[in-house]
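User: Could you go from structure to sequence for me? I need the amino acid at each position, not a summary. Structure tokens:
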């Protein structure tokens, strides 16, 4: 992937020899598959996230829970209650009921270029990083990729010239 910072840039901004492990944000917010939907929705809102991964008891990646699915569930339970009154704290329905089981993931050793290609091809906002046992270890969003590109650009410019 080659991106120019401006129309007069002399050198392209490129992902150097990076891996998914170097690009990822470690230990992302995730939900146990038995967490109640209202609690998951509240955590997503608290952290201003539109989605978070769902894991099983062994921390293996098994799905993705979206804020829109949590909101739709809350609306459904309100509509289907007898007097249109439901106390959210009594709803113990697990997030596994509304989670999307299709999850984009890569291993920690996947090349950075491949990660970016998969994000672009699938028009995904994020991709999850797993270890050899499919345990969730991180997340890579497009903002992580941009951060890596800009940090690489700043470190190149910060190198002093040698007039030996």
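Assistant: Here is the amino acid at each position, in order:
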């Amino acid at each position: 992937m080659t991106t120019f910072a401006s129309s007069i840039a002399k050198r392209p901004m490129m992902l150097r020899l990076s891996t998914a492990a170097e690009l990822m944000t470690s230990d992302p917010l995730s939900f146990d598959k038995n967490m109640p939907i209202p609690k998951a929705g509240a955590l997503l809102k608290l952290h201003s996230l539109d989605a978070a991964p769902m894991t099983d008891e062994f921390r293996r990646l098994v799905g993705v829970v979206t804020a829109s699915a949590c909101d739709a569930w809350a609306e459904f339970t309100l509509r289907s209650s007898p007097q249109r009154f439901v106390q959210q704290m009594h709803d113990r329905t697990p997030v596994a009921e509304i989670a999307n089981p299709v999850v984009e993931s890569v291993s920690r050793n996947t090349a950075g270029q491949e990660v970016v290609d998969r994000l672009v091809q699938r028009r995904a906002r994020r991709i999850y990083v797993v270890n050899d046992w499919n345990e969730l270890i991180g997340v890579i969003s497009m903002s992580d990729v941009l951060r890596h590109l800009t940090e690489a650009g700043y470190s190149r410019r910060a190198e002093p010239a040698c007039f030996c």
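One structural detail worth keeping in mind: The longest helix spans residues 142-158.
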